[in-house]
Each structure stands twice: as structure tokens, then as C-alpha cells.
Write a structure and sequence with these properties.
This protein has about 80 residues and is α+β, with helices and mostly antiparallel strands. Helix 1 links the parallel strand 1 and strand 2. The radius of gyration is 11 Å and the shape is globular.
Length: about 80
């Protein structure tokens, strides 16, 4: 199971990012634990300066925009 976190203040792009990840996981059968981090200090602890950002298993894999489906599929393999 992969630990996936969406970092962001709860904006529309952050919500869209979480939805894309959840949809891809469901459709591909990937087992994930999806969480959201909205605390700005915790977000900054990852070295992220632009949101939304995505962390997979403790590593920042994306920041600054809503990721595409193909990108998410690559993270969840």
C-alpha cells in the first residue's frame, strides 16, 4: 500500500488533485492511503513552495499544478 498525501490549503486545485488520485487508484485497483495536509508549516517541511503538491511514500513527486492521469498512474505502479 502506498502512502499518498496531497499538500495544499484546501483550494479547488488541491481538491481536484485528491479526486484524480482517488479515481485513478480505484480504477486501477491500486491500494493507497490518501491523506490531505493543509497545515502550512507541515507543507513547508516538505520543501514545497507551490501547491497543490503530492507526496508518495515520503517523497515529493509533484508540485504546482493538478497532475494528469498518466502521471498519477506512474506514481501508483
Amino acid at each position: 500500500m502506498k502512502d499518498v498525501k496531497v499538500l495544499g490549503p484546501g483550494c479547488a486545485k488541491c481538491k481536484a488533485t485528491a479526486e484524480v488520485i482517488a479515481t485513478v487508484a480505484k480504477e486501477t485497483g491500486a491500494e493507497i492511503a490518501l491523506g490531505k495536509v493543509e497545515d502550512i508549516r507541515e507543507i513547508m517541511s516538505y520543501g514545497v513552495m507551490s501547491t497543490p503538491a503530492v507526496v508518495v511514500d515520503g517523497r515529493v513527486v509533484h508540485a504546482g499544478s493538478v497532475p494528469g492521469r498518466a502521471m498519477v498512474e506512474g506514481w501508483l505502479k
